[in-house]
């Protein structure tokens, strides 16, 4: 991978990390953020690596753990933050909040909190891309838990049958709610299920952004060559609880510590330093500029007005 | 009397019925080990008490969870399965709507399906429309199901025990807004019959028919109206299906005025059914138009001021009551 591209990846991950850590901070302030806040801290390489392999016109479908996906696809931090705050200036005018943020401007067309709900929709967008003969693909992000829903199985079957240009990205962060993978399924790798639908199933290190990028790039080329879908399973780990209100009682402390040592952001940073592609000085400057983007986003959200109550009635129909 | 929350009352009902009948078992997502371990949650501690054979944490697979209940019940078990949030009822609904509700009928009355589907519901959590969506009218549109929606902890306990003992499939809907406030619950063994409404506050002027969390809103409005000389009768349906028509008509004979209050959206909501009943079977007693106070016809929005706008409050009810009295 070219150094320039790799620095882009690094930058993308840093933005997600800062964004999510800021939200953790804000969640500690009582009544600052409404609702349940669900973060992807520690999983940045999946979002960044996948989206770096996509073009702007490619579509992503996301799930409840969406902030990383959206930012990596190019969503504006200001309006995403304002949406999380529930403000009028939020990208969905406060209708959606943290859990279902849609950013059609960057083709992040659906974020659903219904586990598995996005997978059939990705089949639909990929169908439209194929139907209109566009050189575009759809990426669908979902968790290991979602692979237990019927929608996963129906969708993979149909997508494979019709050679649809869709990449199923299973973000396996070990947990589904409070259940460990071995408590909710007997398979060791979700990717193994691809064989049941005659599509390639690939396991990648989900903490290695470059590996994720490569796997996605290959899958995308297959899609564009008309060879149909791929299931990519990214093995990663959820540093935080399911949501910020979750005290992680069921997550062994040493397990969290072990995975934190395998920090995806530090990994790429080390590699860039070793290759002489970036200096420590440049790293601090980059961190500073990213921290400022996030600070600005919070300020934008805080200073934005609430939606007026009657605005609740808007946007139900076209 | 003990003071407990509705979540704790549900927990007592589950534990008592599991002790009483070894065929009762529980299944659902996170009902054993959850991400929010808290004594106010309805299945807290039951895994420890009854073990993993009877308290089954399941994969995220609503269709299979509901089907598990259908299949297990026809062979004599008494499953109580949980749907985490009302919108996920849609994923379980094939098994509940097309199977649980109809298989007895299809068997010519030979089989029965004694199962309970507990559904958590309600707006007010900033969780947005894919977690908050009251769909009780959907369930009530399915002959073959019973639909229970308690408004107090005491009712929840007695009704859930009846639901577990009932030989029909029962959809039992709990508003999570009631999980956090302790209210009086009788000590010891008791049940409350399904299909019987309850006058929670007698009054001569207007009948307010409501259920679930909106009962609290009705009480607040009644207190305000009472100061102005208007006495509201609050009729808590508790069960939507089978509907206690008798109780509604009896109250209307007395007051001649009807306001219906529910959190679910208006069009196609169960309030319409109550209004139709009043017009069909109590028309001659009515002295004023029937009014509804409901959620507006929108998905539940996320932003706090928008969500607050969605949820019906006592001021809307006061206005509606006054509009039929004055
Ligand atoms: C249909 C449905 N069932 C249950 C839930 C509750 N729920 C939210 S997230 C979650 C776990 C999902 O795990 P996974 O798909 O692995 O994603 P992760 O949270 O680990 O990123 C559950 C059960 C839901 N949102 N939707």
Q: What report would you give on this structure?
A:
- Chain B: Residues 4-181 form the Transketolase-like pyrimidine-binding domain.
- Chain B: It is an enzyme of class 1 (oxidoreductase).
- The complex is a heterodimer of chains A (318) and B (326).
- Chain A has 318 residues and is of the alpha/beta class.
- Chain A has helices spanning 3-28, 44-52, 67-72, 77-85, 118-131, 150-161, 181-184, 209-224, 253-261, 264-274, 280-303; strands at residues 59-62, 108-111, 138-143, 166-172, 175-176, 179-180, 201-205, 230-235.
- In chain A, α1 (3-28) crosses α11 (280-303) and α5 runs parallel beside α6.
- The longest helix of chain A is centred in the first third of the chain and has 26 residues, at 3-28.
- Chain B has 326 residues and is α/β, with parallel strands linked by helices.
- In chain B, the strands form 3 sheets. Chain B has a 7-stranded mixed β-sheet with strand order 3-2-4-5-7-6-12, with helices on both faces. Chain B has a 5-stranded mixed β-sheet with strand order 9-11-10-13-14, with helices on both faces. Chain B has a two-stranded antiparallel ribbon with strand order 1-8.
- In chain B, β6, α7 (153-165) and β7 form a beta-alpha-beta unit.
- Chain B is globular.
- The mean pLDDT of chain B is 98.
- The A-B interface holds A 34-36, 86-87, 90, 94-97, 99-100, 112-117, 145-146, 148-150, 176-179, 183-185, 241-243, 245-247, 249-250, 306-313, 316 and B 29-30, 33-37, 57, 59-64, 87-88, 91, 125-131, 296-299, 301-306, 308-310.
- Bound molecules: thiamine diphosphate (TPP).
- Thiamine diphosphate (TPP) sits between chains A (64-65, 113-115, 142-146, 173, 175-177, 238, 242) and B (29, 60, 62, 84, 88, 91).
């Amino acid at each position: 991978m070219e150094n320039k591209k790799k620095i882009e990846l690094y930058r993308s991950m840093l933005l997600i990390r800062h964004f999510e850590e800021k939200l953790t901070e804000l969640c500690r302030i009582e009544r600052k953020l409404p609702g349940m806040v669900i973060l992807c801290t520690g999983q940045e390489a999946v979002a960044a690596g996948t989206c770096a392999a996509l073009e702007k016109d490619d579509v992503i479908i996301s799930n409840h753990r969406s902030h990383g996906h959206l930012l990596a696809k190019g969503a504006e931090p200001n309006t995403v933050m304002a949406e999380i705050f529930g403000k009028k200036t939020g990208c969905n005018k406060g209708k959606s909040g943290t859990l279902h943020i849609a950013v059609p401007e960057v083709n992040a067309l659906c974020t659903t909190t219904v586990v598995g709900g996005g997978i059939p929709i990705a089949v639909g967008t990929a169908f439209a891309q194929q139907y209109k003969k566009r050189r575009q693909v759809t990426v669908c992000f979902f968790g290991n838990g979602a692979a237990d829903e019927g929608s996963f199985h129906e969708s993979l079957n149909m997508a494979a049958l019709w050679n649809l240009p869709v990449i199923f990205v299973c973000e396996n962060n070990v947990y589904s709610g409070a259940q460990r993978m071995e408590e909710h399924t007997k398979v060791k790798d979700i990717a193994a299920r691809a064989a049941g639908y005659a599509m390639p199933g690939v396991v990648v290190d989900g903490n290695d952004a470059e590996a994720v990028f490569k796997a996605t790039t290959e899958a995308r080329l297959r899609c564009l060559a008309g060879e149909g879908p791929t299931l990519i399973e990214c093995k990663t780990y959820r540093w935080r609880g399911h949501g910020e209100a979750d005290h992680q009682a069921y997550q062994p402390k040493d397990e969290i510590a072990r995975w934190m040592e395998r920090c995806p952001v530090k990994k790429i940073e080390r590699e860039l330093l070793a290759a002489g592609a970036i200096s420590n000085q440049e790293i601090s400057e980059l961190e500073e500029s990213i921290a400022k983007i996030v600070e600005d986003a919070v300020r934008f959200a805080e200073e934005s007005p609430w939606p007026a109550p009657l605005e609740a009635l808007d946007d139900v129909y076209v | 009397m003990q003071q407990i929350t509705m979540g704790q009352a549900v927990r007592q009902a589950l534990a008592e019925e599991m002790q009483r009948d070894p065929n009762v078992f529980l299944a659902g997502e996170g009902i054993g080990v959850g991400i929010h371990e808290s004594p106010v949650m309805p299945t807290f501690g039951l895994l420890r008490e009854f073990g993993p054979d009877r308290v089954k944490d399941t994969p995220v697979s609503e269709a299979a969870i509901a089907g598990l209940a259908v299949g297990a019940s026809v062979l004599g078990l008494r499953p109580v399965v949980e749907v985490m949030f009302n919108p996920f009822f849609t994923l379980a609904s094939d098994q509940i709507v097309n199977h649980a509700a109809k298989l007895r009928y299809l068997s010519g009355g030979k089989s029965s399906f004694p199962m309970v589907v507990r559904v958590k519901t309600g707006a007010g959590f900033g969780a947005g429309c894919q977690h908050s969506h009251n769909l009780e009218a959907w369930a009530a549109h399915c002959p073959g199901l019973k639909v229970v929606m308690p408004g107090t902890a005491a009712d929840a306990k007695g009704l859930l025990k009846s639901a577990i003992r009932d030989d029909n499939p029962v959809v039992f809907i709990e508003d999570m807004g009631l999980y956090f406030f302790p209210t009086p619950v009788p000590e010891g063994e008791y049940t409350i019959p399904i299909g019987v409404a309850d006058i929670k506050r007698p009054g001569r002027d207007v009948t307010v028919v409501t259920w679930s969390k909106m009962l609290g809103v009705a009480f607040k409005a009644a207190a305000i109206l009472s100061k102005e000389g208007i006495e509201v009768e609050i009729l808590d349906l508790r069960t939507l299906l089978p509907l206690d028509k008798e109780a509604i008509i009896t109250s209307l004979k007395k007051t001649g005025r009807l306001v219906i209050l529910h959190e679910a959206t208006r069009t196609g909501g169960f309030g319409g059914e109550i209004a139709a009943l009043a017009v069909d079977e109590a028309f001659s007693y009515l002295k004023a138009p029937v009014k509804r106070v409901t959620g507006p016809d929108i998905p539940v929005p996320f932003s706090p001021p928008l969500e607050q706008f969605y949820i019906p409050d006592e001021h809307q009810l006061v206005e509606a009551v006054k509009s039929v009295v004055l």
